[in-house]
Model the fold of this input.
Amino acid sequence: MSVRLYNTIKRAKEEFIPIDDKKVGLYTCGPTVYNYAHIGNLRSFVFEDILKRTLKFLGYKVTQVMNLTDIDDKTIRDSIAANIPLRDYTQKYKDAFFEDLDKLRFDKAEVFPAATDHIKEMIELIKTLVDKGYAYQSEDGSIYYSIAKFSAYGKLARIDMKNQRSGVRIKTDEYEKDSVADFALWKAWTEGDGDNFWESPWGKGRPGWHIECSAMSMKYLGKTFDIHTGGVDNMFPHHEDEIAQSEAANGVKFVNYWMHCEYLIVEGQKMSKSLGNFFTLRDLEEKGYNCNAIRWVLISAHYRRTLNFTLEACKQAQETLKNFTSFFIRLKEIADSDKKGDDISATVNSHMEKFSEAMSDDLNISEALAAVFGLQKETNKLIASNILGQNAAATVLDAFKKFDSVLAVFEFEQKGNDIPEEITKLVEERQTARKNKDFATSDIIRDRLKDLGWSVEDTPKGPRISKI
RNA sequence: GGCGUGGUGCCCAAGUGGCCUAAGGGAGUGGUCUGCAAAACCAUUAUUCACCGGUUCGAAUCCGGUCCACGCCUCCA
Done:
């Protein structure tokens, strides 16, 4: 089956053909670790996770590199303001970031290179650019990339520099550049940087932001690699600058497929702190939303469409996932029984095929989810008419585990499998009450259990207890 | 000013020339099951795809215009 991906630089979907057969090199612009990631950051990371998982699902072996920007204006500014050494300051947010990745069930990148561990590589790359005449030193010692020297500049974002507004935003410190649009490769040390600097052939200073992605992607994935992803806002200037740096230095194509994730808005409005709709994962957890539901919301819209993130959607997602969990419990009960039934592998296969085809078509998640829901519905019908047997149930469960290797939102095992004694006791009491047809008491106990966070469903085989 | 995206039911969201009298989910309503619930099952909720005009045998899908929302144009995911 051929995989089709939307390649931003072509503005079209095209067949995905990796450089090396079934191996894929994937570079992802990671976070700047100066604060907690917000839900918008997380959306694009989740998109990249879905991309990676989909490729693996389709049989590719993926090497993903996600950089951590732990040196830039913001990290320096905030660490100095907090009076904490940069390294300690960024470590805190690196840790927080990895916590988020775990909570959202990421298939983590193979390499998470930190910028500060690759200063040497960046200096080498800058040297090459200076030697080749693409970069120059300004009066203050900083090194700038001269975009006028790279004729293809603007090919990704389709920006013609001649048409751009100019003059309005020139700040005094930019007068040292040959052209306003030139960007810094190496920033000469200033007092405001404190003791955050490295020695270089151009004196002490620190790297610019764009050079880190060029240097690190090259180191781990080679001069040309398959896929580069990021948020749409990174397209210009960041990705455009990466192309300029990498292609000028190496003389070969930088990236074959560019993929960009759209923005996220919250409750129909742009996310901002002043509107009070600025959420981190922590904020949402405090409000009582679980991470699977949040992940569900983030993956449930196509990555190239603006996603309207709402708390209502989180609630709905929780509802959906709860139904799936109870579906899995029922399936498991049948799978563990010795019930005979019809063979349904044809149904399972056709839904699996639909899912696979949908995801292969530029990650058409909506169609893929329709296939998932379709199999659930078909299976439920068989359960309702009592013809789903043990083997079939096991087959269906396997199929959902396969779906989940891409989606990573389902719970197959009951969390906290061990039900507290207190709960078991209450359930027993309730059973006794029910036997005695004392339904008033039975209902009171059920409410009580609900308050304690457990739900009881009465089935022919007895009560089914599950965590809410 | 330049470049670009989108407006589909109560909400979310696929579909981009005929299989669309528009997939799927959530929510609602009626029914089956249940002591009652929950879950599940059955039925039901857009002759219509922002608006106006055009192309076509045929348009949610193509073209033109209008309105609305949004993004990028130097470090913001």
About this structure: The longest strand of chain A covers residues 225-231. Residues 311-335 of chain A form the longest helix (25 residues).
